[in-house]
Amino acid sequence: MKLQNKFIELRNKRQGLLATNFYNFETLEGVLLAAKSNNQPLILQLTRSSINYLGLPVAFNLAKSMLDYHGVEGWIHLDHGDSYELAAQCLDIGFDSVMIDASEQPFKENIALTSKVVKLAESYGANVEAELGYIAKLGQDKEGSGFTQPEEAKQFVEATGVNALAVAIGTAHGFYDKEPKLDLERLSEISKATDAILVLHGGSGISGESLKQAIDRGICKINLATEIKNIFMQTLKTTLSTNKEIDLRKVFPTATNQIVELVKGKLEIVRNTK
Ligand SMILES: [Zn+2]
Description:
Bound molecules: zinc ion
Number of domains: 1
Order of helices and strands: HEHEHHEHEHEHEHEHEHH
Largest sheet: 8 strands, parallel, barrel
CATH topology: TIM Barrel
Distance between the termini: 26 Å
CATH class: Alpha Beta
């Protein structure tokens, strides 16, 4: 099934689709084993830095072949694409979906670049996600303001024809000092103003209850990256501090298994059963 149709199907049931970032074989294996165990679909995301790290064909084909191997329903997505060229490369190799993030540019420039990517993606039948508003990136000020305005969201989606929109309603990338309070009223208004699939970035560290409330009010895609990286590295550090094992095939699975448990829990949340 096309991702665009899956979004609609899930949104009608007030359910969300989890989008997990992966960085190597082990993190990919972890998220896929969780999806398989829960029998739930998921989106596999790559940022520019992960693409640079793995190599675009390697990253794409690894994800593709592991989806097939594990029999998981999933889609491959470019997370925070920062240029038309990168989006084009990803579409050309077969990504199901790309994000073009021009959220730090003025409204008009964001519309212009997003429209260009939407036009290109049409010929591939691919999904396009854009971002409107300020969602602090790693290292940026979390207190920075710039929540998504419902009226602007409506204008933006109409002008660009974009399928999915990342909204700024109080989340940020990375970990939080304390869990932020999501602006759920605003989310409801955005959801009323536009038919686009709404996306929550910065899902790490948001409680299950808050995530469910966000899904109830129209969020359909929930991104998870920081918690995956963190649990993998923390587990490795702990394991290695008391272990002289040099067979990496005996070391990595302990960290991979922690990702499986983490992602199973998140998948259970986005299923949003009361
Ligand atoms: Zn993000």
